[in-house]
What we know:
By secondary structure, this protein is mainly alpha-helical. It contains ten helices and four strands, in the order ααβααβααβααβαα. Helix 3 crosses helix 4 (77-87) and helix 6 packs across helix 9.
Amino acid sequence: MVHVSDEDCEDSSSHVWLPGARYRPEPPETLARASHFTPHEIKLMYRGFKQECPTGVLDEEAFKNIFSQFFPLGDATQYAHFVFNAVKHKQTGKLNFEEFLDTLSRVARGSRQEKLSWMFALYDVDGDGRISRSEMLSVVRAVYELLGRAAAPPVDKAAAEDHVDRIFHLMDTNADGVVTPDELARWCARDPALLRSLDTLDTVL
């Protein structure tokens, strides 16, 4: 078991990791109060995180390498890029343990609204608060590449585009060419399976 002591924690007044500095997370008890995990679970996750990332922060390439280990039958590169883009620190372009934990907490055990927020951030690739058809298509294609040989039946490029066209048309209720957070929420209320699919991540922890 890893002990995340006060010596492993940053000054609580500083939450921005600076290049060249060794990142130290808050104590597990503090992190537990801000997440849906117990201190024990957080210690276990921190042990794995530190094994893969001794400096305490991940860049995109390191994140892709870790992510790809969970999907050996497909190509996780592009999907990992979109996930990292959604969760990275906007100033540093890197991912620390607290941000990693926050994402897992929201996706695996969060409320309906937290899961919706995560899903929207994933598909809103450029971060402008709207999901375009091209953004949705890029992420869906990345999902198919991620699944690789595990996809049944195999999905080709044309099928992915047809799928996105059909779903995007249904989500974009005012036909303005973009999907807003409210439109996504209304669609997920009609099709709860979209959110239930995220719950499978809880079994990994």
